[in-house]
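FAQ: What does a ligand-bound record look like?

Like this one, built around NDP:
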Amino acid sequence: MGKALIIGAGGVASVVVHKCCQNSEVFEEICIASRTVSKCDALRDKLQGKTKTKITTAQVDADHTDELVALIRRVQPDIVINVALPYQDLTIMDACLETGVDYVDTANYEPLDTAKFEYKWQWAYRERFEKAGITALLGSGFDPGVTGVFSAYAQKHYFDEIHRIDIVDANAGDHGYPFATNFNPEINIREVTANGSYYKDGSFIETPPMSVKRVYDLPEIGPKDIYLLHHEEMESLALNIKGIRQIRFWMTFSENYLNHLKVLENVGMTSIEPIEFEGQQIVPLQFLKAVLPDPASLGPRTKGKTNIGCIFQGIKDGKERTYYVYNVCDHQECYKEVGSQAISYTTGVPAMIGASMILTGKWKKPGVYNIEEFDPDPFMDALNKFGLPWQESFSPALID
Ligand code: NDP
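The answer part, i.e. the structure of the complex:
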């Protein structure tokens, strides 16, 4: 059916590549392009001969639009799947505009020097994408991503109005290291050291980092400490879900993880302000990333499960109603299947599915869209088919 250019060759990209190769009818050809081409070649070598999908590789610095444009003109893809870092979103969108190619990513743009992620930069491309007749699908990972699809599904099938959404992202995996992050440490630590925030009656209310805590008993995982965080999908869900009054995002952290993080923060290692060290400018957080375990190395060591889902409260036919939809994913099963742990897996599968929705024409619409703006049904079916089956409950425990 089509050809995808996958940008990035890290943890998430590896899963995207595996999943495209499992879906060769849609992804007849892929080109894996990243800054370090040896990582792309390694992925190609792992899969070539085991799939009908034709795989090529290329080197690109995605910070430079001109390099991307040249690559796109050479490869001629039908879609670009951006699984590099959020800093490259705009240069890649610019290149897609210039070449008239559809675009998918999993995380919204964040300027390198401000640690503030918002959709405004990418939403500013709406008119230009519309005029060019191309589609940009923003945030097609798990959260953002599947959480938006779950919300659209709840809205379509179970509610006249959704009033409250609690997104709960739990990772009960154990990698055996004293401290490591499950995906890119720089992105992860920037996210968890920022202020928390939640949506309430038309505005966002900020809370100090990790200051709001609850305990939630998650299916297949058990009771866990969950903490309120800011998370990017709240910004678009607040606009796209009818009648919404409150949205909160919760993530599990162990006491051990938080203690390590506190110490690193107290000594200044999580700062993104450059400092002078032995005649060189270094960013402490980037240095920290270099000494922490590579998230890609956690796969074989991580045991346990993740559970990510959304709890909805609202009304249907004048009556109050609650609904919980979630996916449970087992780290070791993911590793057995694609050689990655569940965090990369739960992001990479939806990225492939989002791209397939556009390639097959199901979600082809000129403009820039968040995932909950499309019909959730084909995406929900694809989750069951490609390794992220979901479960539902109509009487979940609620979070106060
Ligand atoms: P990794 O750090 O493992 O991989 C990032 C990849 O991007 C690396 O291959 C890196 O190349 C490449 N890259 C970085 N800068 C450039 C550049 N300028 N040009 C070309 N390639 C570049 O990250 P992950 O795979 O863990 O994460 C990928 C994305 O997924 C991130 O945007 C992250 O925020 C997002 N994500 C989304 C989630 C969701 O649920 N929505 C959850 C988890 C992650 P090199 O090897 O040379 O450094």
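Follow-up question: can I read anything off the structure? Yes, for example: The longest strand covers residues 305-316.
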